[in-house]
Amino acid sequence: MNFKDANPIYLQIAERISEEILAGKFSSNERIPSVREYSALLEVNINTAVKAYDYLSNQGVIYNKRGMGYFVSPDAIEHIRESNRKQFMDETLPEVFRQMKLLGIEFNQIQTEWNKLR
Asked: Do residues 78 and 96 touch, judged by C-beta distance below 8 A?
């Protein structure tokens, strides 16, 4: 995995796992790779992977069954989507609107492009 400088590596790992859950790679109540497996896969320090798993656990995305590993929470998709929506609305959208204003792009032009994707 190629990491970006903008965010801490543990958050990038958490984002990757979240995206895998959204994409259906891991289902509700399904076991995900162990911290050791994931740290080896991404070639990162195990403590970094632990931090990512702890973060996801605190967000309600995964849960730990002692001695069995980590599993996808039943409402993981809702937690991920809500968190991503908030981030989009708070960070991404204001920048998009700023760029639209600078470039003279009207909302109806965006609507037209959106409709092409449907």
From this structure: no
